[in-house]
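Anyone? Bumping this.
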Amino acid sequence: MSIETKVDSLPGDPFRGERAREIQAAILRVLIPILAALVIGGLILLILGKNPLEYYGYVLRRGLLTWGGLQETFTRMAPLLLISAGLIVAFRAGIWNLGCDGQFLLAAVISAAVGPALIDVLPRGITLVACMVVSVLVAALWSLIPAILKSRYGINEIITSLMMSFLGISFANVLVKLFFADPGTTVPQTRDLAVVDRLPRLFDTTIHAGLLIALAVVILVHLMMTRTAFGLKLQVVGANPAAAIHAGLNVGWLTILTFAISAGLIGLGGSIEILGVWGNVRADWNPAFGLLVVPLVFLARFNGYAVIGFTLFFSALMIGGDSAARRVGVPSDFVLVLVALVLIFLAVVEYLDHLRRKRTTA
Amino acid sequence: MSEIEPPAMSSGISHAAPPVVAVRQVTKRFPGVLANDRISLEFRAGEVHVLLGENGAGKSTLIGILAGMQQPDEGEVLVDGRAVTIGSPRESLEYGIGTVFQHVLLVPSLSVIENLMLGGNWWQRLSRGPALARFRELSALLGVTIDPDAEVGRLSLGEQQQVEIMRALWRGEKVLILDEPTSMLTPQGVHDLGQVMRRLRDKGVALILITHKLMEAYEFGDRISVLRLGRVVGDIPPERLRSMSEAETTEAVIEMMFGSTAEHARDAETLVGRGRPVHRDRTVDRSAPPLLAVRDLETEATRGECPLRHVSFDLWPGEVLGIAGVDGNGQKHLAEVLAGQRAVAAGRIDLAGMDVTDDGVPARRRHGVRYVTDERLGEGTVGIFSVATNLVLKEIGTEPLWRRGWSDWGRIHEHARDQIERNDIRTPSEKTPVARLSGGNIQKVLLARELNTDARVAVFNKPTYGLDLQNTRIAHERIVTSADRGVAVVVVSTDLDELIQVSDRIGVMFQGRLAGIVENGPDVERRVGLLMTGAEAA
């Protein structure tokens, strides 16, 4: 009985073609949801009787095309980038640190309390660095409870870190109202750090040096995760905890460390937002950047360079969306509608892509 | 031998019972592979129909089609004589076809009884009472004792498979497909499974048994069909099989599978499970102090696991100690404790006279302890990571591939290319995610990683589980060459034939204790078998 060979020969260099196709697919996976969200968002505006082109035009002009708007956009990027950096470390290590808002706010309040207190006795540079260091430590400390609960008892960190976030936000308010309130005003807020004592501005712009810190941190985090043994260990823990134990990694210790680094970087974000932009914290102030950044980090697939692009896009949308909403006459929260649409379409595209892969590899 | 009947002619006329399930001219293509090429087979009630063939012969694809996982490109599937489309695993179950796959498909975080209740309709309440009744019925039928509330992830592979069989039979028993069911069982377990199969057959169930072990085919099968490269290349109907001796069957099947007996003698040997002992020509010098001394080792276990109880043994350089036993009698704990990835509750481990009891994996590895795990994708590798990364998974951060903590990816990839070539790992590139490789090649990655440097003690856990003939042989050779180089080797396996082939001594685990250690030699099968049941103390 003769048996023919049924195996087709493979094309010459399958790897390069595959890689190009993967990159192309990755770009499409991001662009399609954004475009679809803009189209559907436009339709919603039409239904509301507004001109979508006018709205998007304002967003673009105010967020990117005017000098003032662009500066605001860049300034807004700084805290978002630092939160992203913190989340990349955690998510790549398979740890869902959703306590970012609490960590961010607590660190911000600490900076707002320490800064004005130290500036009278210490030079500006040392004061600023001290604020950042203390804020980072406090945020890292705040993450210790979910970290230890996870590493020692295996308790799901999504729940605990989220709970600690609510506690952190409330605690930050308590600190502002009870301990660090400026006696000179009737509004409950911390003492003000004078503009001259804040983070230096870049050249003649309103952009503060925190942006440079943030960019450097994101790039360093990216390099740490992709080029160092420590980053690789974290990724092993994230991708397959059983393999990490098998390879002899100290999973408990790495979990605590990951949480501390992640929260510390998010805390640094809170610190520079105060030291660069606000100078004080008012009671009940909570920009809630954290949970907005989570989807960005997913969109970027935990890639530090991609996160920079997405943060720019998102900042422009936030800054531009604010004034566009006022001019066109829709609520300023319409930006959140657009973000939500991006997320929905992202999930849809991801699902379709998954189906396609399943069909081709089954 | 010349009278082997072609499949198309033998089917349909040779047996009185009508086929319950049949496939006709079924063809299935995958990119680059013709997995099933015009396959026609009939499966009858009250018959154990063995599908025999090498890995890649198309058995799994055919099963996938019957189980509703895949659709044939051409041809048709008939149930009770009617052509049907089995669009999903659920439909397959509704036609009364239950399948036990080679890989466990249970939810590890749910209990046994919860897993079994999963198949119910979503609008119905889960009722524990009837489920437990059915569970006891099937437990009695299979003759197994499993805690219905144990978490499945904590059961041994063998026990998980028993749960799988229950799930396949849960909704009735018309057709039961078993894909390589004995690969995880002991001789006793295989024997028990044989009895279960016979009982089911006598109750009128059509059984389809997929295997690559000829002995099993002969022992359990009423009818044997041989597949090769997607085709049915031969068929031995019941009346002929009954009249043949085991040797005659062996020869006939080898003839069908390989064309000529001489040409593929070694494949045939592995297939029959009767390979010459590969390791027997050397004696171990036990006058020197042992390299590894284990004393009164105990571990703690969570529910469903079997902890170690007072395990003691010595192991000399160049010696292979086989660890036999029914799956789930503490073998996994023993392997993990030796590797350093499980804490010792009591007792001590000495390596070359040095106390290593409290050393973790990295320290043991520095002392030359290597562990080839049975969970190749579960813990042995990170599936989404490249072959290159997985080859150095246990050395992250050490010189020279890392310098001051910075990864030297150029060297890591170079190291990988070197290992790939030396160990004949078939992969498109060193950057390919390891999960895309076949089981045999993933095992080669593990063997390369664990045995590449100064190994002194090597622990192999089920080293050939799920591998094809060629890779089984490679794994056996690696075990033996390690021992020849002076490595002290522990091989944990539930395949006694394998242990007899490679071991100097065979220890038997029973309920967490080392029930006894016997010298490999004549009569070893019987003595090990006795120890396995706990009948004899040392």
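Late reply, but here is one note on the structure posted above: DSSP finds 14 helices and no strands in chain A.
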